[in-house]
Amino acid sequence: MAGSGDRRVRLVIGIDFGTTFSGVSWGLDGDLGDLGIEVIQEWPGKGNSTTQKVPTVLAYLKKGDTFRWGYQAEGMANAVGGVKLLLDKSKEVLFRPAIDSELIIKGLERKPVDVAGAYLKALFAHAKEILDRRGIGKLMQSMDVQYILTVPAVWSDKAKDLTKQAACHAGIPEADLYLLSEPEAAAIYSMHTIQPNSIKKGDSFIVCDAGGGTVDLITYEITQTDPIRMGEVVEGTGEICGSVMLDERFETFLKETIGKQSYQKMSASSKQHALQRWKVDIKPSYSGPDDEDDLLTEVYTVPVHGIPDDQKKGIHQGMLHMKNEDIKSIFDPVMERIESLISDQEKKAKKAGKAPKALLLVGGLGASEYLFNRLKLRFKKLDIMQPQNAGAVHRGLEGDQVQTRKARCHYGVSMNYNFDRKKHDATLAYWDIYIEKWRVPGCMTWFIKTGDTISEQDPISHSVFRNVPLNFDFRFKDTLSICTKEESPAMENKDVVKHCTLHVDLRNIPKPLFDRRRNSKGLEYYHIAYELVLKPQSACLEFEVVFNDVSYGVAAARYY
Ligand SMILES: Nc1ncnc2c1ncn2[C@@H]1O[C@H](COP(=O)(O)OP(=O)(O)OP(=O)(O)O)[C@@H](O)[C@H]1O
Ligand SMILES: [Mg+2]
């Protein structure tokens, strides 16, 4: 029976919420023994055929909250796709379906986070139904359930927080939710597919997760082999230059080739046919030219119903004949972006004395033959591999294999310090009536600096103190700021960007525990010292409030 032994059974559910496709996998650990990991392959609207992923598409029906999702929503009027990209406002969205989706969502008077939440709720409900069919559903009450949700490593913390909110909206308890960075999930999974004797302690490798929307890269070093432990060698990087950019470029190519006017005249379903041909047949199978002569070879045809014949343009009987060089010209700028991201990681890792041995290519675009061929030519010293990816569940079942990570920016809080004429601008100083000293606001205390090695096992603790009147309500706000410049400034300035507000609630602490003081004027006040503890998780920072060595829970963070 589940939960009958000493150790409660753990159920780990991994959710891969992608720009174009999403997936769910689950695994158990504990008394039920190792039942392996199931990657869900049955989806509503897909009948008997199986596939590991379901489209990240949702379409609301007329009015109200009912909607279709996944395969059932594909091709429907007002279908919303690419909603994930709308969660990160700090990145410019150039992907047309996501831009169209933004308008549809606005028209529905909803926010992207609501739609992402609705989609995740449906995905999660489906996963539960599958678990029911496997006889696990009813036992869930007696199990420790952990949900692992992957997010791009390049996401802003605000976007990660919105993803978290969407998951909570889907009914996933926040306390059981862990955000995992996508390349990290890939690294963990890849370690299972690589021959154990081919990796040694000290080896480093680059993971390039090229998905639909984002391309995320991180370089890891193997710090231990049995069990495998890894650490980040250099900070991860990435961009929104995934496979949907190729779709976007194909549409532009089509428009330019047949002419804007003719393109506008094409019916929506004809355009859809042409795009499907690109997405399903051409893009995934393109492997590049064999040689220069091969560039002019006609390799694919695309249906362009209703467009008149034009020999020069290669249009014949409603078909556009695409040459090898046409497809190459669509791919190349995106391939060059990816190559330059890889080259950056390689350079940085070499500089850190950890030259990478291998490159693991994962994600939909990571499976591209053309990308693989180009990378083999360009990065001759790297062993290039394309393992299948399903890492989130492994992270849950096997614990934290990535033990150290590199901070991507400086994180700090602005504090008031005692005035020091050597360091501070006297015009900023103010008189503190409680401690009777000149103080200066806006002094930066940096918890974490860019490139610092951070680890979930080593929370970073920082003392904060405040002097408050006796009738204070014991709720504080601390502002966490970030700086992406190389140097972290000593004082707040334009490079210090407000990142989130941490809400610290000390109302539950009995007042006698606070340090009550009286100054020379007889003014009584509380001097309250607490610790803000930052736990750097895979994809986000978690903040805990500690007073007198007792944890008072997580400080709620509201992002700017
Ligand atoms: N062989 C291939 N070559 C190029 N693109 C491919 C190939 N196979 C699949 N794709 C594309 O990859 C994308 C899906 O990949 P994946 O599932 O990794 O992305 P995602 O999880 O939706 O996106 P992201 O992780 O960026 O949010 C789709 O755009 C699909 O058309
Ligand atoms: Mg993905």
TrEMBL record:
Q: Does the keyword Transmembrane apply?
A: no
Source organism's superkingdom? Eukaryota
Q: Tell me the GO molecular function terms.
A: ATP binding; ATP-dependent protein folding chaperone
The record's annotation in Pfam families points to: HSP70
Keywords on this record? ATP-binding, Nucleotide-binding
Is Nucleotide-binding one of the keywords UniProt gives this record? yes
Gene3D superfamilies for the chain:
3.30.420.40, Actin, Chain A, domain 4
This protein is called Actin-like ATPase domain-containing protein
The lineage, from the top, is: Eukaryota, Fungi, Dikarya, Ascomycota, Pezizomycotina
